[in-house]
Task: inverse folding
């Protein structure tokens, strides 16, 4: 199988060809040639004006639904969604049934469809059944392919358990991934507590629930001298604490979501759109602007979708009873293009930084294994339900004009082309 990508702007800070518009020839899963003009009859030609090519993108936090919740998404549909959105690597949370907490569960995910141009990486559970009480055999999961460890959507509430987990993973340079959310603070909150929640009469969840956990987890990281990644950061105050921790030299990284960079709690004033019910909740405009600034200055290392498939019954209901989360894989980069971020800033957050943090190297150089995303950063496209490859459709982005379009992905000798 040969693939020719014609006249693509190479966006790879680790490549000799960075910021040069070149032809790329991929043969047998390897980048065989990069030059100004390649004349060859390839099996697959990608020739779209104005395209760019970068190392494949990473999504560090996608809610696991297979096994156990395949009616929402299965491994095949997650891969299809990821490829549509330009991602070649996806980290799956352990919130499956059974929980991803053994080597067998890790092997199940790692052994997904071999024909897919997407590599799935399990996040192993820190505690058994994600109940926050007893540690799992994390080292065994690490040996079988777990990329990181955390209880996924269930934040680790016990400081003692988190200390033990941080100490445990430090023995093999592992990373704990945590959503900072104190479940004891307004556990019934449905959205950000503030003026808007009062106006529309929904129970609020105060910023304090996140702030307490960020502050606590930083202290535990300082005590253990381990590695911690906080995901779903949504507050300006959280950004300030993380920035100080980084300046101190702690090994802490963090990520936010595309929807926290675009939507705010005021977005709910247009109607009780259950697709905007997420956790952590959408915050204020002040927080949104602080998050964007933190992405730009590097305090926020990564952007991850927190893609969460919910079946129709979980969203077409009263706001109070709706499930949390929205789809994000298919629309992430197009949505980010509307948030005021530049192409290089987006690539740093979805490609170069996550690859560095989790040691998943790739480069666009002759002889390198093919792991690339081809995209057009300057086009505008109306996102429709036909763009969704998930089994579910809980996206608030349907009908929204997005900036940037993914043309295709290549991973080894496997590829996905979105446009002909």
Result:
């Amino acid at each position: 199988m040969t693939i020719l990508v014609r006249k693509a702007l190479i966006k790879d800070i680790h490549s000799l060809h960075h910021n040069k518009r070149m032809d790329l020839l991929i043969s047998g899963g390897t980048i065989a040639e990069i030059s100004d003009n390649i004349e060859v009859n390839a099996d697959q030609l990608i020739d779209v004006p104005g395209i760019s090519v970068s190392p494949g993108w990473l999504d560090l936090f996608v809610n696991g639904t297979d096994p156990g919740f395949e009616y929402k998404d299965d491994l095949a549909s997650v891969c299809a969604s990821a490829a549509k959105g330009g991602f070649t690597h996806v980290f799956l949370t352990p919130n499956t049934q059974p929980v991803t907490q053994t080597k067998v569960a890790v092997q199940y995910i790692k052994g997904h469809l071999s024909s897919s141009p997407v590599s799935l990486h399990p996040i192993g559970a820190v505690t058994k059944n994600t109940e926050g009480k007893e540690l799992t055999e994390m080292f065994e999961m690490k040996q079988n392919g777990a990329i990181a460890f955390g209880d996924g959507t269930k934040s680790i509430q016990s400081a003692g358990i988190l200390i033990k987990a941080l100490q445990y993973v430090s023995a093999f340079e592992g990373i704990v991934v945590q959503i900072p959310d104190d479940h004891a603070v307004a556990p019934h909150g449905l959205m950000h507590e503030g003026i808007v929640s009062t106006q529309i009469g929904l129970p609020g969840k105060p910023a304090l629930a996140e702030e307490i956990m960020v502050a606590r987890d930083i202290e535990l990281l300082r005590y253990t001298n381990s590695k911690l990644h906080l995901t779903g950061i949504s507050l300006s105050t959280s950004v300030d604490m993380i920035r100080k921790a980084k300046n101190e030299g702690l090994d802490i990284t963090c990520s936010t979501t595309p929807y926290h960079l675009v939507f705010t709690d005021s977005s709910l004033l247009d109607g009780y759109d259950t697709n905007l019910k997420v956790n952590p909740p959408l915050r204020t405009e002040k927080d949104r602007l602080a998050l964007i600034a933190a992405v730009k200055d590097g305090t926020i290392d990564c952007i991850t979708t927190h893609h969460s498939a919910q079946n129709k019954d979980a969203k077409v209901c009263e706001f109070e009873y709706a499930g949390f989360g929205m789809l994000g894989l298919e629309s992430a980069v197009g949505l980010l293009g509307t948030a005021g971020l530049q192409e290089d800033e987006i690539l740093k957050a979805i490609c170069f930084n996550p690859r560095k943090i989790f040691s998943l190297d790739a480069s666009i150089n002759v002889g390198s294994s093919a792991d690339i995303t081809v995209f057009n950063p300057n086009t505008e496209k109306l996102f429709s339900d036909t763009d969704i490859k998930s089994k579910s459709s809980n996206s608030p982005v349907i009908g929204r004009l997005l900036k940037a379009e993914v043309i295709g992905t290549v991973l080894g000798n496997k590829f996905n082309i979105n446009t002909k």
About this structure: The chain has a mean pLDDT of 96. The longest helix spans residues 208-224. Residues 407 and 419 are 6 Å apart (CA to CA). The chain is about 25% helix and 20% strand.
